[in-house]
């Protein structure tokens, strides 16, 4: 096992990784920017190295400085957390070529899944259901028109190098399509340096359901169940839960089996997530994330297993500590992300110094957060300040427990999304489980009352 690990991240996820290391008896190295000198991850670590100024490019995204910090401190492995360099295949490759352990999937898996069109082709070949559309990228208009005609309108154009909702465009008819392709290609070129786009049938009210996977270097693949992440705003997830209430047992079983089959086809190692769109009883592979995700605690709560510890053990060459049969699913977990943003001002980030803070506790409540009284949130990084995760015997208990936890929560000094989250959890439609990726389309919030637009074609569990 590694004796020392460098955590190439900041905020709550850096703490999360270090907590796992501590429990495993592994020493930790923090890296930090100048802006983060007073951050909890720096204090929490056994050693800390300042790697540069505030902007991510000069610090958390700087290959050489991070690898040098690992070399100086004799760290044997690097955990990248999420965001920053976690899905950068070149960085993973650089780490490995310096003889440092990479706590993540192989660089080739990261690269393959990084191209969404290649990922889709890979999973189609592995026998997974994919959304009807083009085989690979489309370049000419004639071909696009022919494919759209075949699958029917509306269609969606996605950037191959996109993901997370960036670079998408919907076309409702053939007149729309030619224009949409031109715009999508131009946007993709300027945003990702890659103009390639692919086409698929547009699903009107899908649910976003993802499967948590773990693979070891001995060929074992297990799933840790699914998470429903349909409640999002501008492709930022706000609430995640497990299990997904919309899946009947036979569909859930097929979904899990498909995800495992896909991971097996690419000899996947480490933690990963396969994202699907679910419409009715049909599910379709969409993307695979080759990192630990923000919402991973939801799966930890329902299984009682530590995903970060497993990632570390896998990177050290150990087999998974359990088999699929040993994974037992208990109860219902929900996570709310709390951001330092003003929901009455289009979720504008609100940096500032935290005054009084009280984070919730009690039975079945987990809080993953890096804030403390007197901590200053800088404008340089993500605005998430806490994740509240609850476990209940069933969904109703989890919803009640989350509302109670949000009511207990006090974060003075910065505008935040606690009240907004409480309003969503209290909405009858949320409580009935009538979720889709359109849940928040057209909502309004005045700081007290949440109004949701009329849903179309969304059904409860
Ligand atoms: C779709 C779709 C409907 N039909 N693809 C958005 C994120 C990106 N990864 C893919 N996304 C979507 N792809 C087809 N064929 C609707 C979305 C989508 C969405 C997906 C998941 C979570 C939230 C979403 C919000 C809007 C649109």
Descriptive notes:
- The protein folds into three domains: 4-103, Rossmann fold (3-Layer(aba) Sandwich); 132-201, 2-Layer Sandwich (Dna Ligase, domain 1); 207-451, 2-Layer Sandwich (D-amino Acid Aminotransferase, Chain A, domain 1), CATH 3.30.470.
- The chain is built from 14 helices and 24 strands.
- It has helices at residues 11-23, 40-44, 63-73, 89-97, 107-114, 116-125, 141-151, 174-192, 249-265, 296-303, 307-315, 395-408, 418-426, 428-431; strands at 4-7, 27-33, 47-52, 77-79, 101-102, 155-163, 166-171, 197-201, 207-215, 221-233, 236-242, 270-279, 282-289, 332-339, 341-342, 348-349, 352-353, 357-358, 365-369, 376-377, 384-392, 410-411, 444-445, 450-451.
- It has an eight-stranded antiparallel β-sheet, sandwiched between helices. Strands 3-2-1-4-5 form a five-stranded parallel β-sheet. It has a three-stranded antiparallel β-sheet with strand order 7-6-8.
- The mean pLDDT is 96.
- It binds ligand MV4.
- Residues 131, 156, 163-165, 200-203, 206, 208, 232, 235, 277, 286-287, 437 line the site of ligand MV4.
- The site of ligand MV4 has 17 residues, from strand 6, strand 8 and strand 13.
């Amino acid at each position: 096992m590694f004796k020392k690990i460098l955590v190439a991240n900041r905020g709550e996820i850096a703490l999360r990784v270090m907590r796992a290391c501590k429990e495993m008896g592994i020493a930790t190295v923090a890296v930090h920017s100048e802006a983060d000198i007073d951050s909890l991850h720096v204090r929490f670590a056994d050693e800390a190295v300042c790697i540069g100024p505030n902007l991510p490019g000069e610090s958390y995204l700087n290959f050489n400085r991070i690898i040098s910090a690992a070399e100086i401190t004799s760290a044997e492995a690097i955990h990248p957390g999420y965001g920053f360099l976690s899905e950068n295949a070149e960085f993973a490759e650089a780490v490995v070529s310096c003889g440092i352990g990479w706590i993540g999937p192989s660089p080739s898996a990261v690269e393959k899944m990084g191209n969404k069109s290649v990922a889709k082709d890979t999973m189609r070949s592995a026998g997974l259901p994919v959304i009807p559309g083009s085989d690979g990228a489309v370049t000419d208009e004639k071909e696009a028109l022919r494919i759209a005609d075949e699958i029917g309108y509306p269609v969606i154009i996605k950037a191959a190098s996109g993901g997370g909702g960036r670079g998408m465009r919907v076309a409702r008819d053939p007149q729309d399509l030619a224009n949409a392709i031109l715009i999508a290609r131009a946007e993709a070129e300027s945003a990702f340096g890659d103009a390639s786009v692919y086409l698929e049938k547009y699903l009107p009210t899908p649910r976003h359901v993802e499967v948590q996977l773990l693979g070891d270097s001995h060929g074992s693949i297990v799933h840790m169940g699914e998470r429903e992440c349909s409640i999002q705003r501008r492709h930022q997830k706000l609430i995640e839960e497990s299990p997904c209430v919309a899946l009947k047992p036979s569909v859930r079983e097929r979904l899990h089996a498909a995800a495992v089959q896909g991971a097996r086809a690419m000899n996947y190692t480490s933690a990963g997530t396969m994202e699907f769109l679910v419409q009715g009883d049909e599910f379709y592979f969409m993307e695979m994330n080759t990192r630990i995700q923000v919402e991973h605690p939801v799966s930890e709560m329902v299984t009682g297993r530590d995903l970060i510890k497993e990632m570390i053990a896998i990177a050290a060459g150990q087999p998974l500590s359990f088999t699929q049969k040993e994974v037992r699913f208990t109860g219902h977990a929900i996570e709310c992300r709390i951001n330092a943003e003003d929901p009455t001002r289009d979720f504008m980030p609100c940096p500032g110094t935290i005054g009084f803070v009280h984070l919730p506790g009690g039975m079945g409540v987990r809080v993953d957060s890096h804030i403390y009284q007197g901590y200053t949130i800088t404008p340089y990084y993500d605005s998430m300040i806490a994740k509240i995760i609850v476990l209940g015997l069933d969904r109703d208990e989890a919803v009640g427990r989350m509302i109670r936890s949000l009511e207990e929560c006090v974060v003075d000094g910065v505008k935040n999304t606690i009240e907004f989250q409480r309003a969503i959890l209290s909405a009858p439609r949320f409580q009935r489980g009538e979720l889709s990726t359109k849940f928040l389309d057209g909502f309004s919030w005045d700081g007290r009352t949440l109004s949701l637009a009329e849903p179309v074609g969304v059904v409860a569990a």
